[in-house]
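Retry 2 of 3 after timeout on previous attempt. Resubmitting structure tokens to design endpoint.
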């Protein structure tokens, strides 16, 4: 990975225009502030800060893999959903971009084929660009990419990017 290949984030550059109302943002990551549960959040914070023991746990940085109690809860929840796992198998990230970057670091080598739906999530593509993959755009229909893709595309490559609407 060479820094000269780093290009500005298209998402971040477009986000700069949001305060000016130049664009209407239809992507994720910017929910309507009117929908934030401000009262519930304030109540939860008050409860945590009222207990010095809880405040000492809540305020410092979490371990890199995430709080143990959260990972335990997630493992239990996954098991209840039919996907049994244990807390050591769970890594809590700070968002989708961090998860995509970690996945790319593990799975993409220069020149690897990465299959992507067309159109695809620009945030994933820009993250993957750092690892210099070869993208293969896969056409879609109402059934999703697997049904529309030629058989030779279905199981090639180590990563596929599919927008959330089709998962």
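Retry 2 succeeded. Sequence:
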């Amino acid at each position: 990975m060479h820094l000269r290949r780093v290009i500005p984030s298209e998402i971040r550059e477009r986000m700069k225009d949001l305060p000016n109302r130049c664009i209407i943002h239809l992507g994720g990551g910017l929910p309507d502030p009117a929908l934030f549960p401000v009262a519930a959040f304030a109540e939860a914070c008050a409860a945590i800060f009222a207990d010095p023991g809880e405040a000492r746990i809540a305020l410092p940085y979490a371990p890199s893999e995430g709080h143990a109690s959260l990972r335990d809860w997630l493992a239990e929840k996954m098991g209840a959903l039919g996907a049994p796992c244990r807390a050591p198998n769970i890594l809590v990230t700070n968002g989708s971009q961090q998860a995509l970057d970690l996945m790319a670091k593990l799975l993409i080598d220069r020149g690897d084929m990465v299959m992507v739906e067309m159109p695809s999530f620009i945030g994933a593509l820009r993250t993957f660009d750092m690892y210099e993959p070869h993208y293969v755009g896969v056409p879609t229909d109402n059934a999703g990419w697997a049904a529309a893709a030629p058989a030779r595309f279905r199981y090639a490559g180590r990563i596929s990017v599919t927008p959330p609407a089709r998962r």
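Attempt log closed. Residues 38-50 form the longest helix (13 residues).
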